Amino acid sequence: MTPLVFGQITIDWPLAVHSFWPILQGGLIYTIPLTIISFVFGLTLAMVLAIMRLSKVKFIQTIARIYISIIRGTPLLVQLAIIFYGLPDLTIEVSPFVGAVIALSMNVGGYAAETIRASILSVPKGQWEAGYTIGMNDAQVMRRIILPQAARVSIPPLSNEFISLVKDTSLASTITVTELFRRAQEITATSYDFLLLYSEAALIYWIFCFVLSIIQGRIESRLDRYVTTH
Amino acid sequence: MLLEAKGIQKSYGENQILKGIDLTLEEGKVLVIIGPSGSGKTTLLRSLNLLEIPEQGTLELDGDRIDYSRRLTKREIQNMRRKSAMVFQSHNLFPHKTVLENVVEGPIIVQKINREQAVKEAQQILNDVGLSDYQDHYPFQLSGGQQQRVGIARAVALKPKLLLFDEPTSALDPELVSDVLKVMKDLAAKGWTMVVVTHELKFAADVADKVLFVDQGTVLEEGTPEEVFQHPQHERTRQFLSKVLKQI
Ligand SMILES: Nc1ncnc2c1ncn2[C@@H]1O[C@H](COP(=O)(O)OP(=O)(O)OP(=O)(O)O)[C@@H](O)[C@H]1O
Ligand SMILES: [Mg+2]
């Protein structure tokens, strides 16, 4: 029996090098596309939900409110399982990747809706009135006056949601999407070097997020070229 | 008459703010509205631009008429609203657009005027308000007085039948007030029809064709500047005038 040794970790360098590319590849062909596609769909859904929440029609408001409440009140892992393992019971079968895109988009939609709604509400009422007084209708004011200002407010929280999403895609491993984390898992099945391989996966996630946070900073300073006077 | 409002009533909840206001204005004339804080001046002005929809009364503007006691469609509101344009006390410029973009927004997006034409006209207007060097600045880069002049330019660019001003100088530092008032005088001289809420009595005396003293949601006094300022009929008007004059 090998004695337990603390304070001494031997790194299997050849394994580290050999496993790096397959894990990274899982990130490049699954994690990143999954993140981007789900975020785009999710934001679109969020925009619709945010506008529904701001509607004067109670019924429309309520639908959006219930949806958001369900998404926020249930684990993403369970949402994924329902979409991938549950929908086939209704004879709707989707591939793991598509299932993950659906579940993640629906999830992002629920969370980002509140962010977008809050950012729309943060634009002063005077901006609506200024839009109206120059003759605009509601849609014109929303699109040309309110949303550009709301965008500036919502970029930091939405970037954070994007970065969270990168990490949340790892849950897609549970529905057999061979993304970054699943690749690492698969390699542990033969090498048993959990510490090394999962650390490697963590490192790659961290690099992705680090790069994103730099891009986030760039976008924010670009949008700061005007300063609201309110 | 270009403008005729009759029996305008507006409440917020239990609180009746406008208690049946009548006013008329001929084309090319300037009406100044004065009155104590909370008397309903802003509410009245906003009602003329349909930013507020009163419960009662009629509004006739440039040949069109609406009855506020009826339910109005969005289209009716918009058609009527487009006959006038408002200059706000806090200017409400679009902070994400440059000075020029602020001014051409309405003409291009709402009136569908081609960009080249709109820009040319906007530059002329900006020149008239003394801001031709600032067209590419963002609002936050301007002084309060300059911002307010952009607000005026934005309204003028729409060529509305009626310009509405809600205390356009009261949020400004004293030394910036005169530039804004001068722009407004120029507009009056050019024949714009204007309704101006202000505490600038000297401006009112110089420019107004008619002065309205509004108190607690009713028109208490109405006449030429001379009549209202020199020979007020009501004690309330006298008190108000002496209070405002004392502040100067
Ligand atoms: N949206 C609103 N909801 C409730 N009450 C309001 C609202 N807007 C204005 N009021 C009330 O209506 C009254 C008249 O307001 P208004 O702004 O028209 O007065 P004003 O004559 O313009 O005053 P000031 O000289 O201070 O600008 C005030 O008592 C105000 O509190
Ligand atoms: Mg007011």
From TrEMBL, chain A:
Gene3D superfamilies listed in its UniProt record: MetI-like
InterPro entries for this protein: AA_ABC_transptr_permease_3TM (IPR010065), ArtM/GltK/GlnP/TcyL/YhdX-like (IPR043429), MetI-like (IPR000515), MetI-like_sf (IPR035906)
Transmembrane segments: 28-52, 64-87, 195-215
Residue span, ABC transmembrane type-1 domain: 28-216
Location within or outside the cell: Cell membrane
Membrane topology term: Multi-pass membrane protein
Top-level lineage group: Bacteria
Sorted UniProt keywords: Amino-acid transport, Cell membrane, Membrane, Transmembrane, Transmembrane helix, Transport
Sequence similarity: Belongs to the binding-protein-dependent transport system permease family.
Name of the protein: Amino acid ABC transporter permease
Protein's organism: Sporolactobacillus kofuensis
